[in-house]
Write a structure and sequence with these properties.
By secondary structure, this protein is mostly beta strands. It is about 0% helix and about 55% strand. InterPro entries: Galactose-bd-like_sf (IPR008979).
């Protein structure tokens, strides 16, 4: 079932992730009043003692370098499954606009109980049938330099080009990212005003027969 969402997932694929450490300084000032009595003059004087304590608070956060909050993103569709599915064909026609012709096609995948299988990915010009992607069927046996994989939180994953569950040919892409999305993307160049047919085949299987809501998710976007 296709489930359009109001929220836009903004993704910038990279091959590495980093840790950002944020340090804040907390300064605490305490004031102590000591009373001193002079018997000769019978006067009471107060002495103020000030103690300053500085505490360094260090908070470590994971920086997801797959995300880019400044990108223009078009969400083609979002898919959430409650049960396994065999290879299913998805297709979308996109019209390129001026100033947004250099971008990336991005698959955001999460599958806690099983695996996603992706095959025969294509971005073709409607007018000329020219193919924009390289190794869309993963028949090179690896992601090569055309595909970019990113696991931003170093989560549990078994993402790889594999044999045995392909739709056609010899290979397909298998993704088993658990508890968080990981990302597969490829850069492409479009012509303003031209239409492109974006298509692929996607399956989810090799796991339990019933899925918990929200644990098997896929989103496909164009980012410029």
């Amino acid at each position: 079932m296709l489930c359009p969402r109001d929220q836009i997932l903004v993704i910038l694929p990279r091959s590495t992730c980093t840790l950002t450490v944020t340090t804040s300084i907390l300064t605490t000032t305490s004031t102590t009043t000591a009373n001193t009595t002079s018997s000769a003059s019978a006067n009471t004087s107060s002495t103020v003692l000030t103690t300053t304590t500085t505490t360094v608070l260090t908070t470590t956060t994971t920086a997801n370098v797959c995300l880019d909050s400044n990108a223009l993103v078009t969400v083609l569709f979002t898919l959430s499954l409650i049960a396994p599915q065999n290879y299913t064909f998805y297709s979308y026609v996109y019209t390129a606009t001026a100033g947004h012709t250099l971008g990336s096609l991005i698959f955001s995948l999460r599958n806690d109980p099983a695996y996603w299988f992706l095959d025969d990915v294509s971005v073709k010009s409607v007018s000329t049938s020219a193919e924009l992607l390289t190794n869309g069927g993963f028949e090179s046996g690896s992601l090569t330099s055309s595909w970019i994989y990113c696991n931003p939180v170093s989560g549990s994953s078994s993402s790889q080009v594999t044999m045995g569950n392909q739709r056609t040919g010899t290979y397909c892409y298998r993704d088993g990212s658990s508890n968080s999305y990981d990302y597969l993307s490829q850069k492409l160049t479009m012509i303003s005003g031209s239409q492109y047919n974006i298509s692929f085949w996607l399956a989810s299987r090799l796991g339990v027969v019933v899925y918990t809501n929200g644990t098997v998710l896929a989103q496909v976007t164009l980012q410029f």
